[in-house]
Design a protein that fits this description.
With about 140 residues, the protein is of the alpha+beta class. It folds into 2 domains: about 20-85, no CATH class; about 85-125, no CATH class. Helices cover about 40% and strands about 10% of the residues. The chain has 4 helices and 3 strands, in the order αααβββα. Helix 2 (about 50-65) crosses helix 3. The N and C termini lie far apart (about 65 Å).
């Protein structure tokens, strides 16, 4: 006889179909995030990394991968699944390491955001990455 932990969140019994177009770890990340969203987990904000942390732990345990690899796949899945309804997307063919082309699909307009501009935006929200160090 099993006992039910009253503090544990009970998820609906859901089985996700495998997407054979993705590698195993990516597919597991997408399934984890999709199920989290379907079960009411709020979409992450600028300062909320809980879903990312949980997905990374899940991927590291399930796939025996490094934290860096798990973070990459988890962040990609979260960003893509949480942005599906967004009217903007990134044009990856034209974007570079320092210029991000943002396409507004509703108006068919493009805006370029530089790495410096993005850093300023992150500073305004108080979630900037570590300050870059300069070599002497």
């Amino acid at each position: 006889m099993s006992t039910i932990n009253p503090h544990r969140i009970h998820y609906r019994n859901q089985v996700a179909a495998v997407d054979w177009g993705r590698d195993f770890i990516s597919d597991q990340a997408y399934q984890f995030v999709r199920l989290e969203l379907e079960n009411g987990t709020p979409k992450p904000g600028l300062q909320d990394n809980l879903m990312l942390e949980r997905c990374v732990s899940h991927l590291m345990a399930l796939c025996s991968c490094s934290k860096h690899t798990a973070e990459t796949h988890a962040a990609r899945a979260i960003a893509e699944l949480c942005s599906r309804e967004s009217r903007v997307s990134f044009d990856m063919d034209r974007s570079t390491s320092y210029a991000l082309f943002v396409v507004d699909r509703a108006t068919n307009t493009t805006r370029v955001v530089s790495a410096a501009e993005l850093l300023r935006m992150l500073h305004q929200h108080h979630v900037s990455p570590a300050e870059p160090t300069t070599a002497a």
